[in-house]
Amino acid sequence: LAAPLIRHSGIAPAEPTGAMSLDEESLHSQDTGDEDDEAPPPPPDEALSEQESDSENGSEAVSTMGAGKYGPDEVNDQIFDELELPSEIIQEVQHAWALYLKSADSREAAGEAIYAALFDSAPNLQSLFKTPRAVMAMRFMNGLNTILGSLQDPKALKVTVETLGFQHLHMEVTVPRTAIFRDAILDLLVLELGAQLTNGAVDGLKTVLNYVGGAYIYVRQNYASRLKILASSWATANNRKLADDEDGEAAGNTGEVVVEMGGRIEKDAPKAKSNNKLRSSAKAMMFGAAAASSKRGSEETAARESDGLNTAVPTTYPDMFRWNAAVMGFANRNWMGEVLASFDTIVSNVSNSYRLQEECDVLLLRMAKYKSTINLSEYKAVMLASLRSLVPREWDSDHEVAWSWLWENVERLIKVNMGKPPQQQKALAKLWGSLDETDQAFVRREIYAKFFLQAPSGMDYFKQSTTRLHFIADKVVSMTLDMYKEPDKMVADLSALGLRHVGYGIPTELFGPFVSACVLVVRSLTDDDLAEGAFRWSLNLISRILTRVISEGSTIVMRAINANSGKQLRKAVGCAPRSKRADWMLNITVGTQSISPLMWAIETGSLDAGQAIISDLLTIRADRDRYYYGMDALFSRHPDIIKRLTVDAPALLPTLFDGLVWRARLTENGQRRVINFVRPLLLGPQGEFAQALEWLTDSGDPKLVCHPTVALVTDLVWSRVAFPIFLLRKSWFLFTLVIFMLSQSILNRASSEDGADYHDHSTNVRTTIFALRCFTYGCTMTLLIMSHIRQTVQDVRSKDFVHVRCLRLPAYLFEGQALASVFLTMCLIAMLVTEPVLHCLATKEDHGRIFTERCQSGEDVSLVYSIFSLCAMLSYYMLITDLSVFSTRVSAFVLIIGRVVSEVFLFLFALAFFTLGFASGICTLEQDDADFSGIRKSMLTLLKIVFGMLSGEHYETLAEYPLLLLTVMLYNLVTAVFMLNLLIAQLNCAYGSTFQDMLGFARLKRGKIVVEAMFSVGQARWEGFVQSLELDRPCEFGEGDIGLAGGIQMTEPASANITTVEMIRRFGGSTSPSAMWPEDDQVSDDPEDRFEKVERLIKKTMKKLDPSRKRGGGAGSSQGMSSGGSGSVLSDSDRGSEG
Questions:
Q1: Can you give the pLDDT at residue 840?
Q2: How many of the other CB atoms lie within 10 Å of CB of 399?
Q3: Which of 297, 432, 546, 702 could bridge to 997 as Cys pair (CB 3.0-4.6 Å)?
Q4: Nearest CA among 196, 103, 85 for reference residue 150
């Protein structure tokens, strides 16, 4: 019906940004089959090995370019054929381009220079440059780099230019405007390269740019209206609105362009989910009517019932297609479900030859799983019938031609390899199964040897160990076979793999040499052409998918993250529409896979970029219509962001918490208005208590929990929710402590009735004491034992142990006061074993006094029992220190005692050491002092001296032994003077270092108690607390200024946190959500930015003043400036083209 959309046959190159450089036999023979009757272009190695032409014969060679169809002097827009340049001209052009890239500081800088040259070339058209400069600069850079890199492969070059032409359909490209852009680019190269730019390179560049401009014009004249029909009718058929043309994007050009602009997240993610749903339920939803036909007696009726059809008319293409398929008798064509699942992607990418070819190849692999005969024309019939029903008003002969043209191209691409995948899969499986360990080792080794030989720069990216590289090679080999077996799963896995490579910054140019190396290695292993072709075709498809994913995911934000530059990142996100700014920094979606730039920055250690992202997200911006704040977007995309930061980047947490606080610049009556946006710290995704506080307390950082926002959350939950639960728990503990004190410290010391010894209690007292002790053993001790057994079993099951030398202890023992609780439990068990009352009852030596302790057996264990009772009492009081959490000041004091007690133990250890040493030495002296008659008595006397417990008469005795007196004085000097003062100094230092964070440690302790208590809070109580906070109610930024929801508004003293800068960035001008924010003065006035700007200006001026830089051969590009001076632009960079 019309000229085909895809003029090449077979498999398209990998992608414009990374075309594969295989020779003709290794790349095209399998893909094109018998249809490839064109002479192949010279292999890259041959082209590069040909002799370079000098300046004199350059123009002569150019005169034969394109067999007279294309040349440097004029733009040919009447034909669109392959451009074949002499190899020497190609070398000169590519050499000049490489020199230009080398002269720039970076690829981004080179793109900026091209953008500036094009922008300045037509002042009257500058108003059309609306797309962000950074985005369009990289598009110009990538487009020119792809075109010039494909000169050695005319077929790939034509496909690349054709794809770009489809993306410029909305632009009115003319010959004069082509000349403007051509001459602007050449002027830039002449300025930068000077004499290094040869005549041959100039003429070659002119020819290439003329070829590109003519192709844009040709494609627009032949296909623009047809693609518009496809886009508009497809939108109508699916009840969608056609994408707005605010950014100048054509209807069929929303793929890669929107990805780079950050907007594909919302457009493609639902589409991918819909495609997966269609694909997984193709049989169940659509093609199950054949079995029901025999039962119902009517095939049409059975199809309707199995599909759930009723009298309602379908309103979307998938539903209408299923309905028509059943009516037309194609209900048993299961393969149609696969086409239906991919058809939206096919139509959306009709203008992208590479993407269309890739989708058709994957569709072919899925259709190959069906054993029935596949007649593609049947799908066309159902498709046209469905579209006629869905687009009844607009449908005409032009629509019929356009959709028939589309399906004929799809059918042609699929039929190239129809029926081959099963044979190829079998041959490839046989090949891999025949390889022994020696052959596999050869494959692993030779792939990298050949790859590094073809692309030495690849060694800079493959830095891993040899074993890791061998693992990658094995994965590549297995993936080629898996692509035939499970194409859907492989596409999803490759999308995820490609997005990871975006973060690694892998150039797509390396995929071509890698594929070539793999094919050459496999070719040396087998003579089976079918197996070799199967491997080549599968690996080619894999590389094209990876290249596409990397190209779509390589946004300017990811480049800034790879460079770990906060300045570059701010510049990158400054190009985003204000409504999509957060999406640019939080989500890059390709197909069904996505990657978060923020999380990638955290994982790779690009903390400067990560800090810039968090700061930008949590900056409040506003125009006259609405406020923009990225808090909800951040915590919706990453509910565990606080956990990730505490583990991988704790330095970024203060930036995050600072962004959750807004303070007014102006004060009222000495008070400043403050809003703490606490909703993400309080509420989880489902409205439950968030885990943020748990993650913060687990980190153990006392400074983080003292941040005003975190402290506010902790105090709110503690005072209004957790405190009653905690008090209820501690009330039982206090009750058991009172019972224990009554039985061990109060009643057992009460006087008897007749004034006898306190052990001789009355019967009532003895009975009460025994009953209280039974309660302690039966309730307190039993509950403690059960609690510790339960926690121990949990740790054993989860294998959560802490290694202490050679022992493995349950981890819970090292949390809070668990050790003190275990010690109390052991003491109670020991008390039960040594209970004197039980011993007297057992021996029946009570002499008629029931529950007495005064018997021989009781007295034998009474001392041991009293020691265990003492330890248990001290453990009780140690555990009761948890109650200090009621007051952060008291809790801080208790924590300080616990932290400085280690210094006291060190002092006691040193004191014991010196005491033992001096006591041993004194025993060697000739003296008869009774206080120093042995080591034990000497140590006791020395300790009494240190603590001032020795009476004066003992010192008089020392005077009789001068040497002993001198030794004691020396001991006193070492211990009482030196050691005690050293202890005081150590306590001062420990207190000083602990005092700074004592409030933080107290809040950490309170936070842990809050987290534990929240497990016992009922749902109704929690919901009532949340409702009382009114977090859904917008807070006021000022009188009458209704702001954002999710915060708690309060006031603070004006001197508490002095704020001299308005924290809300307000902008005038347009309020359109699709508009960019104006340049922020606070960023552009950065001293470093100004210095770099001056430095660039100085360098540019020095280049212009350098007398050694002359125009190459006088071939100034201004010769072509006479034409089209007042026309409009060739490639309107702000209209979403790939430029």
A1: 85
A2: 19
A3: 702
A4: 85
